[in-house]
Design brief:
The chain has about 260 residues and is of the alpha/beta class. The protein is built from ten helices and ten strands.
Amino acid sequence: MIEVNNITKGFDDSLILKGISASFEKGKTSLIIGQSGAGKTVLLKSLLGLYKPDSGAILYDDVSTSDMSLKTERELRKEIGMVFQGSALFDSMTVEENVMFPLKMFSNDSNEAMLDRVNFVLNRVNLENSNAKLPAELSGGMQKRVAIARAIAMKPKYLFCDEPNSGLDPQTSILIDNLIQEITHEYNITTVINTHDMNSVMQIGQKIIFLKEGLKAWEGTSEDIFRTDNEAVVNFVYSSELFKKVRQAYLGQTK
C-alpha cells in the first residue's frame, strides 16, 4: 500500500499540490483524474520520488520515503514498474532487449534466467515470438504491451502508468485497460494510473481520485462516480453527450 499524508508541492511562487491525502491499495487499480494543470503529473512524480514534497509524507508499506536510507531507496526502486505515456521504448533495441533492460540493470540473474523471464512476460502480454522485432515494426498497442512487459519484468510491487492509452484507438485502449487490471489482480500489485480516458475510469476505476486546482476534490469508485452529485466531477466526467446518456441510463436502472 502507498499512503499520501497531506503533501504539498510548489515551484517558485506557484503551489501545485495543496495538502493531498490518499491511499492506494494492493491489488486495485487506482486512477488519478482531473483537468490539465490540476496536479496529476506532479502527484505521480512525487509518488515516484522524482519530486520531494515540500511538506507531508509519502509512505510505502508504512515506511516514509523521507526516512529511507539510500540503500532502502534503491531497493524500493527495484520494486517499482513504470509505463510511460509514449511507451519510451529504445528504438535501437529489439523487443527482447527492451524488456531485458531493467533485469540487466537491477538483477544478478544469469542470462538464461533473464531470457526466461523476458519470454514469460512477453507471453503474459500476448507478444510471444516478437523478441527480435524493433519498436518501429510494432503498432502503438503492441508497443504499449512491450512497455507493460518491461514494467513487470522485475516483478514489481508497485506499478505506475502515465496516460497508458494516449494515442491508442478505443478498442486497443480497452485491451490495455483490461491487461493492466488483470496483471494488477494476478500479482496483487499496487497500481496507480494517471488518465484523461473516461472509458478507463468507467472500466477499471476501482478507486478514483479527482484533483481540482491542486486539491483532492472527490474520491470514489467507478460506480460511485455515476451517482455523485459533486458538480466539478459531473462537469468533468460527463462533458460529452455520450457519457451523459450512459450516466442517465445507469441511474435509471438503479432507481
